Structures are given as C-alpha cells and as structure tokens.
Amino acid sequence: MEIHAKRLSKVYGEGENRIVALQDVDMEIHSGDFISIMGPSGSGKSTLLHLLSGLDKPTSGSLTYDGKDIYGMGDKELSAFRRRRIGFVFQQFNLLPVLTAQENIAMPVLLDGTHPDMDYVGEITELLGIGGRLRHLPHELSGGQQQRVAIARALAAKPDIIFADEPTGNLDSKSGGEVMELLESIRNKFGKTLVVITHDNRIACKAERRFVMTDGVVTEEGVF
Ligand code: ADP
Ligand code: MG
C-alpha cells in the first residue's frame, strides 16, 4: 500500500490561541516500510500520526492510500476503511475496561459486522505471549500485557499498516523493550508497514527510515 501525504497542515485555535501544530508536511510511505518519528514534546508527532491514519482531518492538505483520497470519504466510509486497513496503538493502551482481553481484541472486527479469524488471532496472541490471559479484564493485567492486548486488537482485522504513538511510553524499560521487539517481529513475520513515534533512540535506530519533527515540520534523516 502506497500512502502519499501532501502539504498536510493542522492549525488549532484562533487569534492569540492559534497554534500551527503541523506545517506543510509531505510524506510518502511505501508498503513494508519501518518508520520512526522522533522529536520533542509538542512538536506535532501525534497530530501527524492522527492525520496519516485518518483519525483526524487536516486544516489543509491531502492524503491518499493507493490513490484513494482519504479525507474525501464520508465518516462511515472512513471508519470502515480505518477498521479494515489501519491498526493504531496508543501510549495509554485505550482498552475498554469492562471487556476481557479477548473481547477487546475482537471488538473492531465485530463492529465491522464480521468475525475474527480465530486461527490468526490465536497465532498472534501466542506470539505476543498473552494466550493465557485472554479471559482477564485489563485491570488484571500488567501494563506490558495490556499493551500486547492493544497490539493484538490493532492486528485483528489484518490491516496493512500499524501506527503506534509512543507505544512504550507508559512502560518500564524492560517491558517496553519486549513490546517493541514483538511489534518488530510481527511486522517482519506478516509483512506489515510500521510507523512508530518514540523517544527511545534504540527503537528509532532499528527503523529503516527515520524522521525528526521540530515545530510542526518533518525532516527525514536519511535511509539506512
Ligand atoms: P507531540 O505529539 O509531538 O507531543 P502534538 O501533536 O500532540 O505533539 O501537539 C502539537 C501541538 O499542537 C502542541 O502545541 C499542542 O499543544 C497542540 N495541540 C494538539 N492537540 C490540540 C488540540 N486538540 N487543541 C489545541 N491544541 C492542540
Ligand atoms: Mg504525542
């Protein structure tokens, strides 16, 4: 899947409160890319990820997935597209507290009116090391386990691309390292595109393309 972002800008507020969170960002993401995005807090990293994944719309600019205009879609069409093609992993896990791990994982697929491929979900949960925790509620799991459930949820619909916004930001360095290794091995095994925001230089170094953000502007550091 080819993703082309052209001149993406996002402005919040008006007058004295006006903030340009993102300024004319161009980015091309190719199928199978492993991309890291670094930059100080407030530099626009989350804003960029939300726009690239269709979670939010820009003030101006365009985004296409294989030539299809994402922001031109209606809300329903865009939600369905996102559920099927895009996985998103948040720093705060964002699991539904009243649902078990298993139910959280299946939720996006059920919302789409279909059923998860249980063999595939089984394979993923085993790989993530949460096969024995699926009947537990999120609060009965460690942070690292909750994030692994969130990763399984992001993968359940077999999307082409995974966006992760500081996925290890709420974890200690050991479980953060494990979560990142799992994301990487899943990406390699299933041939996914992976875009990760991180403050961790060790993670950024593993990415094949590295971007740095400063004040809403993105620069690519070079291809490794
Ligand atoms: P980062 O993820 O790099 O920390 P963000 O993308 O979250 O940065 O934010 C970029 C800028 O946009 C910051 O100045 C932030 O305060 C501002 N911003 C983000 N979201 C909103 C919002 N919903 N309303 C107003 N300002 C926002
Ligand atoms: Mg952020």
The gist of it:
This protein has about 220 residues and is of the alpha/beta class. It contains seven helices and ten strands.
Plain-language structure description:
The strands form 2 sheets. The protein has a 6-stranded mixed beta sheet, with helices on both faces. The protein has a 4-stranded antiparallel beta sheet with strand order 2-1-4-5, with helices on one face. It is built from 7 helices and 10 strands. The protein has helices at residues 45-52, 75-85, 101-111, 118-127, 143-155, 173-190, 201-206; strands at residues 3-12, 19-29, 34-38, 60-65, 68-69, 86-89, 161-165, 193-197, 209-214, 217-223. It has a single domain (3-223), classed as P-loop containing nucleotide triphosphate hydrolases (Rossmann fold), CATH 3.40.50.300. The mean pLDDT is 95. With 224 residues, it is of the alpha/beta class. Magnesium ion is lined by residues 45-46, 165.
